[in-house]
Amino acid sequence: MPDIILNGPEGRLEGRYFHNPTPNAPIALMLHPHPQHGGTMNNKIVYTMFNSFKAQGFSVLRFNFRGVGRSQGTFDEGEGELSDAASALDWLQSVNANASQCWVSGFSFGAWISMQLLMRRPEIDGFISIAPPANMFDFSFLAPCPSSGLIVQGERDDVVPESATAKLVDKLNAQKGIAIDYRVEPTAGHYFENEMEIIDSHIQDYVSQRLVAPVEE
């Protein structure tokens, strides 16, 4: 799995990339949790997401937001991080020009950024959000939400209450042509400490279904 350096808006961005040599292989971009709370591309959930998409035949990229690891720049309250994500997606598309599908996946803060990216990039076909921080950030920009996806939430999450995520899911599912697959893990907290295999199972199950039978938008 090669280390790569991307050109970002504030300088270099450090990443890890897996290339699937299959012609027209789909692509997926992984986004990590909050940079100011220890979030990096090597977070266990981000790493699990990366390998889940890899197992489904995707070319996959995860990277460090500005100011994290070897990525240049400083934290920018989400606005700059969204620009970083857009640059990373540009790079991923440039080396996979004929990709059959394009997905984004994020955990916590990364889920918030990924869903903003979803709104800006109509070519994104699906998304995975793990514990989206619906109680901390405004998700009203998802009006309308342009793509269906999977949201996974821990019932024992003491950072993002399950009720806040459920409210977001209800709003999205009320939109015409959008189907959110919402899966609540009864024993999981925010960081899914002992549930990496469960996360992997949910992602592979959902993505495999969508690859066989894409949702009609």
TrEMBL record:
The keyword Nucleus does not apply. Pfam families: Peptidase_S15. The keyword Hydrolase applies. Keywords: Hydrolase. GO terms for molecular function: hydrolase activity. Coiled coil: none annotated. InterPro entries: AB_hydrolase_fold, Xaa-Pro-like_dom. Residues 24-174 form the Xaa-Pro dipeptidyl-peptidase-like domain. This is Alpha/beta hydrolase.
